[in-house]
Design goal:
By secondary structure, the protein is an alpha+beta fold. The chain has two domains: 2-12 and 234-295, no CATH class; 18-208, Glutaredoxin (3-Layer(aba) Sandwich). It has helices at 2-15, 33-39, 43-48, 63-69, 93-109, 114-124, 130-140, 146-155, 169-177, 198-208, 215-227, 235-276, 279-285, 287-299, and strands at residues 19-25, 51-57, 78-79, 84-85, 185-188, 191-192. The strands form two sheets. The chain has a four-stranded mixed sheet with strand order 2-1-5-6, sandwiched between helices. Strands 3-4 form a two-stranded antiparallel ribbon. Strand 5 and strand 6 (191-192) form a beta hairpin. Helix 5 (93-109) runs antiparallel to helix 6 (114-124), helix 5 (93-109) packs across helix 8 (146-155) and helix 6 packs across helix 7 (130-140). The protein starts with a helix and ends with a helix. Bound molecules: 2-acetamido-2-deoxy-beta-D-glucopyranose (6 copies). Residues 18-20, 52, 189 line the site of one 2-acetamido-2-deoxy-beta-D-glucopyranose (NAG). Residues 14, 210-211, 246 line the site of one 2-acetamido-2-deoxy-beta-D-glucopyranose.
């Protein structure tokens, strides 16, 4: 019995795919557009299967803001009193920074619109009418921006009083990522694929999702085989057969677990769960709460 549980647990852990795609961007640069155009139709499927998309925006530093006023005065091209800055000839840096926040919130709140919106923005909106132009995308698609605006608002530290010296958690994250390049770049986990053609990128990505049998990847296999003189037309169907076989195995394991549980394996399962959740681990994660609790009890 134990043997089956161990295998089943191992399988469940294997099924969890954790892949990070990190895109570095610079506001003045539009070289991200081709990749975005290609990837926009594939993103949703990968996301549903465990892809984490991280954006890193290149922010400009204001060294003197710290020495002059310790980030306590407003700066035209900065937020956070100079902690985060942007610059362009046609709009203020503050407007650009607010747009970057808006884009991050689109990704967080309406991820299915992130690529379409940023493509639209890159094509249409990098000019003096930036804010109105941005709104048009949402008007055209009948989408309310309220949840996005709320996300932007909540990203500012509510304790600071003056609007443009408030610290901001999204911009702090960008700052920590230290993306200092002025061109777009693309990392799949720690692998730099910035210079790879889209087909190659998709292949690499699909390798990480090889057990998920994705539609996006089926297409890439087709493209690959047709360019390889059509002699390998069997590969896509073989892959599908493998995957359905796997699913049958998973189903059988699930059945076995259900049967074992019904036949008194319940206590065993409980033991295993407690065994893997080791006591010291929970102490490490909530030491403060535990400490507070003890102090309160002592006081009483
Ligand atoms: C993905 O990123 C998260 C958080 O940054 C990290 O915990 C995780 O280990 C990363 N996964 C991989 C496969 O690199
Ligand atoms: C990527 O997009 C370009 C146009 O933006 C297109 O010509 C090219 O075929 C696309 N590549 C793939 C693999 O879809
Ligand atoms: C994004 O744009 C593509 C192509 O224009 C379209 O097919 C798709 O439905 C759009 N996605 C959303 C969420 O609007
Ligand atoms: C948006 O709503 C208006 C009226 O409410 C409708 O005429 C229009 O077709 C809608 N557009 C989309 C893209 O759904
Ligand atoms: C990126 O730029 C910031 C500020 O300009 C600097 O503090 C940091 O060291 C740079 N990081 C790297 C990796 O170059
Ligand atoms: C896919 O599944 C096979 C067997 O089920 C396993 O050996 C392999 O490591 C899995 N690949 C990935 C990328 O998880």
């Amino acid at each position: 019995m134990l043997y089956f549980f161990i295998i089943a647990i191992a399988l469940v852990k294997n099924a969890k795919i954790d892949v990070n795609l990190t895109i570095g961007l610079d506001f003045q640069d539009n070289s991200y557009m081709e990749f975005f155009n290609n990837f926009s139709s594939h993103y949703s499927e990968f996301k549903e299967n465990g892809l984490n998309l991280n954006i890193a925006q290149h922010l400009l530093p204001c060294y003197s803001c710290n020495t002059r006023h310790q980030f306590q005065k407003s700066e035209k091209n900065c937020l956070g009193g100079g902690r985060y800055c942007q610059y362009s000839d046609y709009v203020s840096g503050q407007i650009i920074l607010k747009e970057l926040l808006f884009q991050q919130c689109v990704l967080d709140v309406l991820p299915q619109h992130y690529f379409n919106y940023t493509i639209y923005f890159g094509k249409q909106c990098k000019k003096s009418t930036m804010v109105d132009c941005s709104k048009n995308y949402f008007k055209n698609n009948n989408i309310t921006t309220d949840p996005i605006d709320e996300c932007v608002m909540n990203s500012f530290n509510q304790q600071d009083v003056q609007e443009d010296i408030k610290t901001n958690k999204i911009l702090d994250k960008y700052k920590d990522m230290q993306y200092n390049q002025t061109f777009y770049s693309l990392y799949l986990d720690s692998q730099d694929l910035s210079k790879s053609p889209y087909n190659e990128f998709l292949q690499q990505l699909c390798q990480k999702f090889v057990n998920a049998s994705l539609q996006s990847c089926g297409q890439s296999v087709n493209i690959e085989t047709s360019s390889n003189q059509k002699d390998n037309n069997k590969t896509p169907t073989n892959q599908k057969e493998n995957n359905s076989l796997e699913q049958v195995f998973l189903f059988i394991f699930a059945l076995i677990i259900l049967i074992l549980m019904a036949s008194g394996g319940w206590t065993l399962l409980n033991k295993i769960q407690f065994g893997s959740r080791q006591a010291p681990k929970s102490r490490i994660t909530i030491p403060k709460l535990e400490g507070d609790h003890i102090i309160q009890e002592d006081d009483i």
